[in-house]
User: Which sequence fits this backbone?
């Protein structure tokens, strides 16, 4: 690394909890993600009706971005934030639901409302539209959280001046098992960024 980079903020959504910078902001008794996400949406006083039409992967990513970026976007005018996302299952959960709608020929009912969410980068599109993000965005598929690749890719974007901030995220959802980990990396801050530190935060 040539530039000094920092972790501006980090967030985890897992096990019906939302944790931002090691502080628990929200906890629910609801184990079903769909119900939990609606409760979190109300708790954080989010106003974005399209949220209720999203698939669960997009809801998970959207919630995380909404919470971690809220403070940042109050101070930014250009919203120069790149998105570097990854997960294991791609959009398999929604693909599976779509497949069920076309398998039974006697009850054939494919719905565009399901089909539109069968690509993993849709969740980044929702975030970009919501927050008017115009920097680069990429979605990768790995078996597990690949801190080295995602970290090095983010460093490249920052060091080459393609962006001033990167929202690095692991957003995994499949059949009600989920985890969102987000790390906002910037050229300014107080907590120095390095890959080992990011791994440590991810595994907490």
Assistant:
């Amino acid at each position: 690394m040539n530039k000094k980079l920092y972790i501006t903020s980090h967030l985890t959504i897992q096990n019906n909890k939302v944790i931002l910078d090691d502080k628990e902001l929200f906890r629910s008794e609801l184990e079903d993600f769909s119900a939990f996400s609606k409760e979190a949406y109300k708790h954080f006083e989010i106003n974005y009706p399209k949220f209720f039409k999203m698939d669960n992967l997009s809801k998970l990513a959207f919630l995380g971005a909404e919470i971690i970026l809220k403070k940042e976007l109050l101070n930014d005018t250009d919203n120069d934030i790149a998105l570097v996302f990854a997960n294991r299952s791609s959009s398999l959960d929604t693909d599976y639901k779509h497949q069920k709608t076309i398998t039974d020929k006697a009850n054939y009912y494919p719905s565009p409302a399901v089909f539109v969410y069968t690509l993993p980068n849709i969740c980044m599109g929702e975030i970009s539209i919501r927050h008017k993000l115009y920097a680069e965005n990429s979605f990768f598929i790995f078996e597990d959280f690949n801190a080295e690749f995602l970290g090095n890719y983010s460093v490249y974007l920052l060091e080459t001046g393609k962006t001033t901030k990167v929202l690095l995220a692991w957003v995994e959802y499949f059949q009600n098992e989920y985890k969102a980990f987000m790390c906002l990396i910037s050229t300014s801050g107080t907590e120095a960024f390095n890959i080992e530190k990011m791994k440590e935060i991810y595994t907490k």
Summary: Helices lie at 33-43, 56-75, 92-103, 112-115, 122-131, 147-159, 195-202. The chain has one domain: 8-145+172-180. Strands lie at 6-14, 17-20, 23-27, 81-87, 137-141, 165-174, 177-186, 191-192.
